[in-house]
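User: For a reading group we're discussing how well predicted structures match intuition. Take SKP1-like protein. Before you show the prediction, I'll give you the sequence so everyone sees exactly what went in.
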Amino acid sequence: MQKEGEILDKIVLISKEGERHEVEGEFRNMCNLVRESLEDMEDQNEIPLPIVPSQHIKWIIEYCQRHKFKESDEVKAPLASNKLEDILDDPKDIEFLESLSLDEKTDFMNNCDYLNIPSLVELLAISIASCFRCKDFNQIKEEFGVDGEFNEEEEEKLKKDYQWLLQTDGGNIEDFDMR
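Assistant: Thanks. Here is the predicted 3D structure of SKP1-like protein, as structure tokens, for the group to look at:
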């Protein structure tokens, strides 16, 4: 029987495909859902993750092992650039994030949010935001297939709500025409 405060040597995460992934007990330090599940289940070391695909579990385990199961504070905010190498310190994190499409990042971030892994959610959010940072609205529309025009009221609301996206290095938000 596990004593209170004792960390299990191994935890088994079960993906939505039913695959089993064994990870060190310290994994609970970075994943709040797993920590809370282990506290609730006492003698169990198997955690079913019915909505998380195996590939995402593998990525999460690799990230946690690389960071030695400690929360990372590598993110420099606010974003000074749209280049990950200007924002992040870890070259392996940069390489990994640059290998993912925007859709993959979004899916992965949603699963990390479900698992309550704050450092990975923040890392992915920064990476997604960098896709938009320092681009004018026409570039964003073209790159992401946004159709249609905005009226003046909609344009002003977007500029107000998302001004951090529209600020470029030396550029001015007033220079952007969304119509």
